[in-house]
Amino acid sequence: MSAASNGTEKTASAGPLAGLKVIEMGSLIAGPFCGRLLAEFGAEVIKIETPADESGHGGDPLRTWRKLHDDGNEKTSLWWYVQARNKKSVTLNLREKEGQEIARKLIVGADILVENFRPGTMEKWNLGYEQLSVENPGLIMVRLSGFGQTGPYKDRVGFGAIGESMGGMRYITGYADRAPVRVGISIGDSLAAMYGVMGALMALHHRHQTGRGQMVDVALYEAVFSMMESMLPEYGMTGFVRERTGASLPGIVPSNTYRCGDGQYIVIGANGDSIFKRMMNAIDRADLANDPMLANNAGRTARTHELDEAIGTWTAANTLDAALAVLGKADVPAGRIFSIADIVKDLQFQARAMIEKHQLGDNELLLPGIVPKLSATPGKTRWIGPKLGEHTAEVLQGLGYDKVAQAELKTRGII
Predict the structure, then answer these.
(1) What residue ranges do the domains of the chain occupy?
(2) In this structure, are residues 361 and 64 in contact, taking their beta carbons and an 8 Å threshold?
(3) Is the preceding omega at residue 254 within 30 degrees of 0, hence cis?
(4) Which of 105, 158, 171, 412 has the maximal Cβ count within 10 Å?
(5) What is the fold of 21-226+356-411?
(6) Please, which residues have CB within 8 angstroms of residue 170's CB and are 6 or more apart in sequence?
(7) Any idea which residues carry the catalytic annotation?
């Protein structure tokens, strides 16, 4: 496991995005995940959050989602420490004109603005791209929303679940005889965030050539739809509608999940012609290995059930470890289905620094390593997610607000 910071380091280290200033506005998953990726590679990301109210509630709702860590003063989501690492937290009441003005001052000096409010919200606050780009023509504004900034659905509420459903993912996920299911994580939000980062970097390259910024418009349903492989051309040309098929990969055979004799499951992808032959020989089915009708994928697809039955019979007679050993020796792609407990103890994850250790009070905090791996300017966890408003004084001082001015803003509920 990799060594990591203890959460107190506040100075930016070198990274490919060092020198870039990013303002993150919004909450929960898509926008903040976009900001997280930029922060991991050296950008200064200032996250704007709502100030705490009289009951102490405020900030990104993600701070209180799922499993919480109690440090004696407050309970904070463990997810938060992943999503907000390397960011600075500044509290601003954006419903007030003065809060909007402070945000505008921050954005005018920024390279990238990331926001995931409903379309029209930023314009209502006088923070739309047309308004901001007058003062900051090089600004790149990444806008993540359920349905995008245009079109008849733009004003609808659109969370990741809706984007995954409308984009086609939910329809094909699960088993044919059951209701569609979710993937298990907020994949729609995460895909949109990654497209947001790609768009921002493309826009940065364009700005280097022209000096002009632009708006990056990412819709969650479109981010999902772009992942749908051949679904559209297959439907357009032949009328074929891809359906739910569980763990199998129809038309690419054999590729499925099989139950082993010890009750565990193995994933096998032996769909290459030479790989298929090696596997059949390895499981003592030379008759199938040498069958000329099974020498290519088209022939195997026609006999999918027969091949799955043959493989399933073999796996049922072996433990998972025994099956993996046989297939590994034959160079057949196969693997166990990892739980998070399996991931943490796996040697490959450890060797690639994908399990980071951090100190959170008296506890050890594990965070996922940073992807991708850059040889010269790798990403880094410089500090874990900050406390609400932890950097407000520092950031506002940089805008010219002294302690007296900040105290007044706090009294009036602006910060």
Answers:
(1) 21-226+356-411, 255-338
(2) no
(3) yes
(4) 158
(5) Rossmann fold (3.40.50)
(6) 161, 164, 180, 181, 182
(7) 189
* Helix (H), strand (E) counts: the chain: 18, 13
b/e burial code for range 142-154 (CB count within 10 A of at least 16 → b): bbbbbbbbeeebb
The third-level CATH classification (topology) of the domain covering 255-338 is formyl-coa transferase, domain 3 (3.30.1540)
Q: ∠366-341-77 over CA atoms, to 5°?
A: 40
CA distance 15 to 12: 9
Tokens of 222: 């479109």
Percent of the chain with pLDDT strictly greater than 70? 97
Cα-based distances in Å from 410 to 6, 61, 93, 185, 345: 30, 21, 10, 37, 47
Find the farthest-apart pair of alpha carbons in the chain and give their distance in angstroms, rounded. 85
Q: What is the mean pLDDT of residues 358-380?
A: 96
Contact criterion met (CB below 8 Å) for 20 and 44: yes
> Which pLDDT score, from 0 to 100, does residue 5 have?
43
- Of the pLDDT bands very low, low, confident and very high (cuts 50, 70, 90), residue 54 is confident
Place of tokens 């003063």: 73
Cis preceding-peptide flag for 372 (omega within 30 of 0): yes
Q: Give the model's pLDDT for residue 133.
A: 97
Which two three-digit tokens encode residue 313? 């019979």
Pick from 1-5, 154-158, 160-164: least confident: 1-5
pLDDT tens, 3-39?
344 343 444 457 999 999 999 999 999 999 999 999 9
CA 227 to each of CA 63, 167, 240, 314, 390: distance values in angstroms, whole numbers, following the listed order? 30, 9, 18, 34, 38
3-state secondary structure of 77: strand
Under the phi-then-psi rule, with left for phi > 0, alpha for psi from -120 to 50, and beta for the rest, what region is 173? beta
Q: What is the DSSP string of 19-34?
A: T-EEEEE--SSHHHHH
**Element (DSSP H or E) covering residue 408:** helix 403-411
Nearest by Cα to 187 from 227, 246, 141 = 227
| DSSP letter for each residue of 166-213 | HTTTGGGSS-TTS-----SS-HHHHHHHHHHHHHHHHHHHHHHHHS--
Dump pLDDT digits (tens) for 82-139: 999 999 999 999 999 999 999 999 999 999 999 999 999 999 999 999 999 999 999 9
Residues 270/315, Cβ–Cβ less than 8 Å: no
Encoded tokens for 232: 């559209």
